[in-house]
Amino acid sequence: xxxxxxxxxxxxxxxxxxxxxxxxxxxxxxxxxxxxxxxxxxxxxxxxxxxxxxxxxxxxxxxxxxxxxxxxxxxxxxxxxxxxxxxxxxxxxxxxxxxxxxxxxxxxxxxxxxxxxxxxxxxxxxxxxxxxxxxxxxxxxxxxxxxxxxxxxxxxxxxxxxxxxxxxxxxxxxxxxxxxxxxxxxxxxxxxxxxxxxxxxxxxxxxxxxxxxxxxxxxxxxxxxxxxxxxxxxxxxxxxxxxxxxxxxxxxxxxxxxxxxxxxxxxxxxxxxxxxxxxxxxxxxxxxxxxxxxxxxxxxxxxx
Length: 304
Fold this sequence. Notes:
Layout: H1 2-14, H2 19-52, E1 55-56, E2 65-66, H3 70-77, H4 85-109, H5 116-128, H6 131-142, H7 147-154, H8 171-196, H9 200-208, H10 213-224, H11 226-241, H12 245-250, H13 260-270, H14 274-298
Antiparallel strand pairs: 1-2
Helix pairs in contact: 2-14, 3-14, 4-8, 4-11, 5-8, 11-14, 13-14
């Protein structure tokens, strides 16, 4: 490393570059590899997907048939390709429950609470688990006469047992509940970090004024972390639109749990319609970008 630095320094001095030019050159040299990786694994596949979306291709044949915008026309004229977005509404509402719980626990555990480090670990631990492991855990949890049914029976509520993953009316509620448990720790740790950055002097002043816990949360914590809350809302809504991991692992999209991403995957690789699947991926990307831009406008920076 020292030898490489010496050669770069020698090169710069030999060419009599001023400080400004040296700075630009060093930035370009150190940015070359990250930019090459970004272009290779992000933008180049995206460009290929755009090209595939205008073709009829099975993903195997060396020949692709140009179809123009017929894949997009097919998507917007066949309602079954968009009705799956109804499933995303379950995850959309679940994200607000998830964020509310994460914000509540973060607010409580930001103060002096007994065993708070233990509770922090318990809340954050599910986010550290592998998604496949979580899928299998909740398959046992929701199966007939499984953990949930046993718990209900223990509480004297056995008559409320259901086919949690077999009933199309409640399967998405079950999966959305799993999503809350899976991702709440992520929101929790972000909220906790933001709340911990608030100066203790503000709380002391609030205590002197006789503020209670709710008033501290409403007038101190919430305004101080407003930008973090807005960022989490953007991430949560985008995640609800593109949800994939939990329903795919637990049900494979059966019994009415198919999401748009699962449908895109099945279209491209199960039915060998890569062109149509690519068009669906592009539409999903446009939807996510549009939602993000709308949220940025609604949650735009307010002038003081």
